[in-house]
Design brief:
Heat Shock Protein 90; alpha+beta; 5-stranded antiparallel β-sheet; Beta-Lactamase
């Protein structure tokens, strides 16, 4: 392997090329090779930043390219130059996830650790991710370094027969939360499968399918934001941390004509990951039913349309089926928790667990909403969330489960609550999170109806 992008500055002391396998052990091997070269050249002081950067780049190549990896490095008296090549033409993109997200930050981290970095496309032959580390007197400027990730010199892709797949009324905010969940749980599943020696699961095909949808969603959100004409997903006054996104998108994505099996594999891989999450084998929390439903809908639309069928729009989360967990669904057991703090309350209160399932409601609030308490317990919280706010609620709670992000806890909120008869009552909320043992949590909302005209 010859250097594709970099021309080392200064006198070259060491130049080496290595072929690495497309497995998770390659990150450790890359760190070892890099450290060995720096030790031999007398630049061991560069190792900490360089090892972390190469670990991120090689791990990303293994997790997302699913091909062998080539490592080229050169050490001069001025800097260490590194190129990591894989053979997948799909280029890395910035994720722009929440600050507490457990994934999606690799490129930004490399930018902060190195003096220069970037991505060079080789078209159908793959790509090269490169970086340089040397003596730096000042901390790097993150915004300037991230500009280096702009893709340069793109080569034309191979001619592949494609077909249009239309995803109508795609719920943008819900898919963004689903995307974040998918990235986290598939990444963890990959490590789980490697640890257990299971190579029968086709994570590569699943990765390809989810990237096709998510890339189109992000592109359309950017276009809708620039146009400024789409209806926002979150109503004015709602305490969502999301940047502006449109309520719905009509997408048309081009996918290879023979890619239907990829979308079926994506469903199977995510179903496996969800079962492991429910069983406590993964750190990532199980997805909420709406998150599962929107990815199933998107995958099934691709499969149907690639077979000649017609598109069916997303039907929304206001459906009654989301008010209970599906029959036979894998759901964590109810946490051990003393519900008397709610059931004995003389004011409005409702408690739910981390599966978004109602555990208890005070008689006062149940009466205001027109429910018998026994009929609400076991239902999901969306039962009392107005339809216009359900997707924002699910998206926010899903992000909280995945990241720990908590924008609404301990903050007074004025929002409507849905009565059993379909009417709404404006209420003042204060939500608190209560530990329930074994890593579980209960969320207690103290709710007072506001006088008519207040808010």
């Amino acid at each position: 392997m010859l250097p594709t992008v970099l021309s080392p500055q200064g006198t070259t002391h060491i130049e080496r090329c290595h072929d690495l396998a497309g497995d998770l052990e390659s990150a450790a091997e890359a760190r070892r090779l890099l450290r060995e070269a720096l030790d031999q050249s007398g630049h061991a002081d560069w190792s900490d930043r360089a090892e972390l950067a190469v670990s991120e780049v090689v791990t990303n190549a293994v997790l997302h390219a699913h091909t062998p990896v080539q490592l080229w490095l050169a050490v001069t008296d001025e800097q260490l130059c590194v190129e990591v090549r894989d053979f997948c033409p799909m280029l890395p993109v910035q994720r722009n996830y929440d600050v507490e997200a457990t994934t999606g930050r690799g490129m930004g981290l490399v930018a902060l650790l190195t003096g220069a970095c970037g991505v060079h496309s080789l078209g159908i032959d793959g790509k090269v991710v490169w970086f340089c580390v040397g003596d730096q007197e000042d901390d790097p400027d993150p915004s300037a370094l991230l500009d280096a990730w702009d893709i340069d010199d793109l080569l034309p892709a191979a001619a592949v027969e494609t077909r249009d797949v239309r995803l109508l009324s795609m719920p943008a905010t819900l898919w963004l939360s689903a995307r974040q969940h998918h990235d986290a749980i598939i990444r963890e599943l990959t490590f789980y499968l490697a640890q257990h020696g299971d190579d029968a699961v086709d994570v590569a095909a699943a990765d390809a399918a989810r990237a096709r949808i998510s890339g189109a969603v992000v592109a359309e959100i950017d276009a809708a934001r620039a146009a400024g004409t789409a209806e926002p997903a979150v109503p004015s006054g709602h305490p969502s941390p999301l940047p502006w996104v449109p309520k719905q998108l009509d997408l048309c994505i081009q996918v290879p004509a023979d890619a239907a099996s990829e979308f079926a594999v994506l469903q199977d891989v995510l179903d496996l990951a969800e079962r492991l999450a429910v069983a406590g084998e993964l750190l990532t929390r199980p997805a909420l039913p709406e998150i599962v439903a929107v990815r199933d809908w998107a995958c099934e639309q691709a499969i149907v349309q690639l077979s000649g069928g017609l598109p069916t729009p997303w039907q929304g989360t206001h459906q009654e089926r989301f008010e209970r967990h599906p029959e036979g669904a894998a759901v964590p057991p109810m946490p051990e928790w003393d519900a008397s703090v709610v059931t004995d309350a003389t004011t409005g209160a409702i408690a739910a667990d981390d599966a978004n399932r109602i555990l208890a409601i005070s008689p006062t609030l149940a009466d205001e909403l027109g429910w018998d308490p026994a009929d609400l317990v076991g239902r999901r919280v969306v039962t009392v969330v107005p339809p216009a706010l359900r997707e924002a609620h699910v998206a926010g709670f899903s992000r909280h489960l995945n990241t720990g992000e908590a924008h609404v806890l301990g903050v007074p909120l004025d929002l409507p609550v849905l009565r059993r008869d379909g009417t709404e009552v404006q209420c003042r909320f204060l939500i608190e999170r209560v530990p329930a043992g074994a890593g579980r949590a209960v969320y207690v909302a103290w709710i007072d109806p506001l006088p008519t005209g207040a808010g």
